[in-house]
UniProtKB/TrEMBL annotation:
InterPro entries: CysJ-like_FAD-binding, FAD-bd_FR_type, Flavdoxin-like, Flavodoxin/NO_synth, Flavoprot_Pyr_Nucl_cyt_Rdtase, Flavoprotein-like_sf, FNR_nucleotide-bd, NADPH_Cyt_P450_Rdtase_alpha. This is Methionine synthase reductase. It holds the Pfam family NAD_binding_1. One of its GO terms (cellular component) is cytosol. The gene is Mtrr. Forms a multiprotein complex with MMACHC, MMADHC and MTR. Residues 9-152 form the Flavodoxin-like domain. One of its GO terms (biological process) is cobalamin metabolic process. It is found in: Cytoplasm. It comes from the Eukaryota. Transmembrane segments: none annotated. It comes from Rhagologus leucostigma. One of its GO terms (molecular function) is FMN binding. Keywords: Amino-acid biosynthesis, Cytoplasm, FAD, Flavoprotein, FMN, Methionine biosynthesis, NADP, Oxidoreductase, Phosphoprotein, S-adenosyl-L-methionine. Its EC number is 1.16.1.8.
Length: 699
């Protein structure tokens, strides 16, 4: 659809998991209320827009993935603008505003957006509006909402300047008129939605003449005994406030139920990232004792009959399913238990107001209802505010309706963060908390994101174990709490643990004549190569590995590979290797006691271990954490990094370990160089830039 040039702006989004697209759609929806039209496209659709000739303002919403990479949908665009032959005035005509999405738990925060922003500036493009960097660690909405609020005036000013440059004498009057008429319209929209929010009667009572003020008295005053807010209950001032809630997202999916005849699509058809491989699980070992706080499992996969290739340090993805009992529970709540095995046809709703509506790529056109809920939708996803807004319309109880409105409103931002986001609430939790909420299947398909494959670090070497791939993981546990009625395991780790239970605890029925398990469970995987987290190309270069807990996983592959290289090339010179490992208890969760074997055969030069929860027996308490042990080895660490030009690898938890390790390295460099902390931080930054300080971390 061609937008009128006087009102048009180009809106581009680059998304990995759908967040950037959802925010772009919110901007598109709001634009009309401000007298503007957004020409919205995925940044990958380069045949539908042309920045080289674009005269109107451009708004870009872009996420970050991996270790600071732009999303897959932006790779071609980024490659194009990074062409070194482009002149510095290539985009001199371009005005743009950019909103970057990221997570400060990771080192390269919003690097996808920063990369595009920096390159556009280098090519002469000008900001018409300041860059916004939203942090998923604390809540994207804290930056996104005010950034969008300020966007409209900036756009109108940019359009006004554009008209002036084009020499249109009447431009100033026209845009001024547009501004003066648009602002009251926005005010009116806010007022009407505030009044609408206070009408808590259900659809059948919409003709009621009860004034909204009386509804406030009847429904919104909290009982005196409930003084603390919760997921289902609010307190003043929000319980007595008029609310600004998001616009109701337009419906765009239609679901038609069919019979039970047919076949579901193959799982590989759901994966857009490349070739998938279905491989058998040949071995499962519990690495921790039963009384350990966390349960760590090692799985071995047989990849010998596939073209799957990897290097130590690479990651790969596991295609997992939702918990079947949770799916059954969801079907029961939705009143669809009897239709789980029925095939459904998913189409775009005729006459939808959603721009560019299409069936989500991760939803098959025809499959069973259970297939969609088990394999396609992330039913554990934390609901976005737009989803909560849509759920309001599916809720009949007035009090429940009001609370959902509060949780998706601007006034309820802190409650949303506390009771939804930070509590990791999912759709099932909401449906239990708000029992009168009965969403349709089409609404779930519209708002639940794609069930993502989970990424794991390889814990083996194909040189050491040809045709085998190993990986290690903790079975994630989510305890029950005020917002979650039952405890749950992680989606993928819980599924894998259940899948390999026969291998871990073989019964007589699963043992062959030799007493070995005959289970042939298979899982689907696809590669996710890591471009940097690999062994040094020169084997004579020393390196340090820091990997507490399951963070040790990739380093087992490193050491296996190094051991095999030493056996095959006895004449090569090999640099020294350091491993710093930590866990809670030496006798419960020391995952790889065979590390001693690497030490004894010379593959590993130095092994430093610590146990944070063991009671010290010596007069001087030993160090508890890997960062403490690093400080005890300060001279050697500094020598490896500075004098010997070695590498430093960190793998594991970002929040509670990787940052502390980084701080320890800064302290070590500062002390050993006799330099101030700022200088040491600069040295560490240079090591990162040179790919000699490398991290594989998760939050």
């Amino acid at each position: 659809m061609c937008c009128e040039s006087k009102k048009r702006f180009l809106l581009l989004y680059a998304t990995q998991k759908g967040q950037a697209k959802a925010i772009a759609e919110e901007i598109w929806q709001q634009a009309g209320a401000h007298g503007l039209e957004a020409d919205m496209h995925c940044i990958s659709e380069m045949d539908k827009y042309n920045l080289e000739t674009e005269k109107d303002p451009v708004v870009i919403v872009i996420s970050t993935t991996g270790t600071g990479d732009p999303p897959d949908t932006a790779r071609k665009f980024v490659k194009k603008i990074q062409d070194k032959t482009l002149p510095p005035d290539y985009f001199a005509h371009l005005q743009y505003g950019l909103l970057g999405l990221g997570d400060s738990e990771y080192m390269f925060f919003c690097n996808g957006g920063r990369t595009v922003d920096r390159r556009l500036q280098e090519l002469g493009a000008q900001h018409f509006y300041g860059t916004g960097l939203a942090d998923d660690c604390v809540g994207l909405e804290l930056v996104v909402d005010p950034w969008i609020d300020g966007l409209w005036l900036a756009l109108k000013e940019a359009l006004q300047l554009q008209k002036e440059k084009e020499g249109m004498n009447n431009a100033v009057d026209a845009v001024s008129s547009s501004l003066s008429t648009a602002l009251p319209a926005v005010h009116e929209l806010n007022l009407s939605s505030e009044v609408q929010n206070l009408k808590l009667e259900d659809e059948g009572a919409r003709g009621s003449d009860v004034p909204s003020q009386k509804l406030d008295d009847i429904n919104l005053v909290a009982p005196a005994r409930d003084t603390e807010p919760s997921l289902v209950h609010s307190v003043p001032p929000i319980s007595q406030s008029a609310l600004n809630i998001p616009a109701l997202p337009p419906e765009y999916i239609e679901v038609q139920f069919q019979d039970t005849q047919g076949e579901n699509p193959h799982l590989s058809s759901l994966i857009s990232e490349g070739t998938t491989f279905e491989v058998p699980v040949t071995k499962a070992v519990q690495l921790t004792r039963e009384d350990a706080i966390k349960t760590a499992l090692l799985l071995e996969l047989d990849i010998s009959d596939t073209a799957f290739e990897y290097q130590p340090g690479d990651a790969f993805c596991v295609v997992c399913s939702n918990n079947v009992s949770e799916v059954e529970e969801l079907l029961h709540i939705l009143g669809l238990s009897e239709k789980g095995n029925n095939f459904v046809c998913v189409k775009v709703k005729q006459g939808t107001k959603k721009k560019g509506a299409s069936r989500p790529q991760h939803i098959p056109e025809r499959s069973t209802l259970k297939f969609i809920l088990i394999w396609c939708l992330e039913i554990r996803a934390v609901p976005k505010k737009a989803f909560l807004r849509a759920l309001v319309e599916c809720t009949s109880d007035a009090g429940e309706k009001r609370r959902l409105q509060e949780l998706c409103s601007r006034q309820g931002a802190s409650d949303y963060t506390r009771f939804i986001r930070d509590s990791n609430v999912c759709l099932l939790d909401l449906l239990h908390a708000f029992p009168s909420c009965k969403p349709s299947l089409s609404l779930l398909i519209e708002h639940l994101p794609k069930l993502q494959a989970r990424s794991y670090s390889v814990s083996s070497s194909n040189l050491y174990q040809p045709g085998r791939l190993c990986f290690v993981f903790n079975v994630v546990e989510f305890p029950a709490g005020p917002s979650r009625p039952v405890s749950r395991k992680g989606v993928c780790t819980g599924w894998l643990a259940e899948l390999v239970a026969p291998l871990l605890h073989p019964s007589k029925n699963t043992l062959d004549t030799k007493g070995e398990s005959s289970s042939t469970e298979k899982i689907s995987i696809f590669p996710r190569p890591n471009n940097a987290f690999h062994l040094p190309a020169d084997p004579s270069v020393p390196f340090i590995m820091v990997g507490p807990g399951t963070g040790i996983s990739p380093f087992i592959g490193f050491l296996q590979h190094r051991q095999k290289l030493r056996e095959q090339h006895p004449d090569w010179e090999f640099g020294e290797t350091w491993l710093f490992f930590g866990c809670r208890h030496q006798d419960r969760d020391y995952l790889f006691k065979q590390l001693r074997c690497f030490l004894e055969n010379g593959t590993l030069t130095h092994l430093k271990v610590c146990f944070s929860r063991d009671s010290p027996t010596a007069e001087v308490a030993p160090p508890k954490y890997v960062q403490d042990v690093l400080r005890l080895c300060a001279k050697e660490v500094a020598r490896v990094l500075l004098k010997d030009k070695g590498y430093f690898y960190v793998c594991g938890d970002k929040k509670h370990m990787a940052d502390d390790v980084s701080d320890a390295v800064v302290d070590i460099l500062s002390m050993e160089m006799e330099a101030d902390k700022l200088e040491a931080m600069k040295i560490l930054a240079m090591l990162r830039e040179a790919k000699r300080y490398l991290q594989d971390v998760w939050s």
